[in-house]
Amino acid sequence: MSNRHILTLTCTDRHGIVHAVTAGVLDVDGNIVENTQFTDPETATFCMRTVVATEAEPAVVRDAVAGRLGDRLDSAAELRVRPEAQRPKVLIMVSKFDHCLVDLLYRWRNGMLAIDIPLIVSNHTDCQPVAGRYDIPFLHLPVTRGTKTEQEGRIRQLVESHEIDLVVLARYMQILSDDLCSFLEGRAINIHHSFLPGFKGAKPYHQAHARGVKLVGATAHFVTADLDEGPIIEQEVARVNHTHTASQLVELGQDTERIVLARAVRAYAEDRVLRVGDKTVVFS
């Protein structure tokens, strides 16, 4: 019986890449059951996501495709092959607001997110009962200015010991240090409210209401040392008007946040997100 593997490739665009990939798949008696590709015109970066059915192991598929690609794989190229059934391990971090956490756990339990969640980490205890209802271990790691380095060191240990593939900041209200951002480069997603203008600090939805905004929204993006400037994965907006109260804006904004974060996590879990410099290619 054939297994399904997900192959992802980013490299400099050149003639013959698709031909080489398909030839490598044929070399392992594989069949392409899904394929999407895109070339970024500004960077000439070729992006590809291919689902392959074959009896061969992932490493064998990768070697066959890499052999066919030859020198088309430059130093910046990235070729990955993983079993489709292999679920990414996700560490969720949260503070006091639980709407994104509850939504992710609901989707996970009902089979809408193909991920494993070995642990939930928080700097507060507010969400511990939520983790308990889903039988997921909850670790309270309080943080102060004096203990931040130690606390983030513990987070690094957890990521390594649990072999975490993705860290999700589900309204984790702490700024990560540059060192931790570098450690989690390309494997940490944050959810952020989106407004024009960008309201910072406490109660952003109340600030937005005071300024009479006409749209509220959310952005899911990769975490980088540049605060809230990481490559964007998913966004959504909802229109509001003068009749909406500040409380209604909060409610609508939180709904948007949870939907956007869930979409981003699902896209990442299915290897649909490819980094191209400071932006992303997200295959539907």
Concise structural overview:
The chain is α/β, with parallel strands linked by helices. The protein has eight helices and 13 strands.
At CATH's second level, what is the architecture of the largest domain? 3-Layer(aba) Sandwich
Q: Class of the largest domain, according to the CATH hierarchy? A: Alpha Beta
Query: Helix tally?
Result: 8
Mean residue pLDDT:
94
Percent of residues in helical segments? 25-40%
Number of domains: 2
**Low-confidence runs:** none
Q: State which percent range the strand residues make up.
A: 25-35%
Largest sheet: 7 strands, mixed
Task: Give the overall shape.
Answer: globular
Q: How large, in whole angstroms, is the Cα Rg? A: 21 Å
Order of helices and strands: EHEEHEEHEHEHEHEHEEHEE
Counted beta strands = 13
Structural class: alpha/beta
Could you please say which CATH topology of the largest domain applies here? Answer: Rossmann fold
Report on this model:
The protein is 32% helix and 31% strand. With 284 residues, it is α/β, with parallel strands linked by helices. It folds into 2 domains: 81 residues, Alpha-Beta Plaits (2-Layer Sandwich); 194 residues, Formyl transferase, N-terminal domain (Rossmann fold, 3-Layer(aba) Sandwich). The strands form 3 sheets. A 7-stranded mixed beta sheet has the order 7-6-5-8-9-10-11. The protein has a 4-stranded antiparallel beta sheet with strand order 2-3-1-4, covered by helices on one side. A two-stranded antiparallel ribbon has the order 12-13. A hairpin with a 4-residue loop joins strand 2 and strand 3. The protein is globular and about 60 Å long. The model has no long low-confidence stretch (mean pLDDT 94).
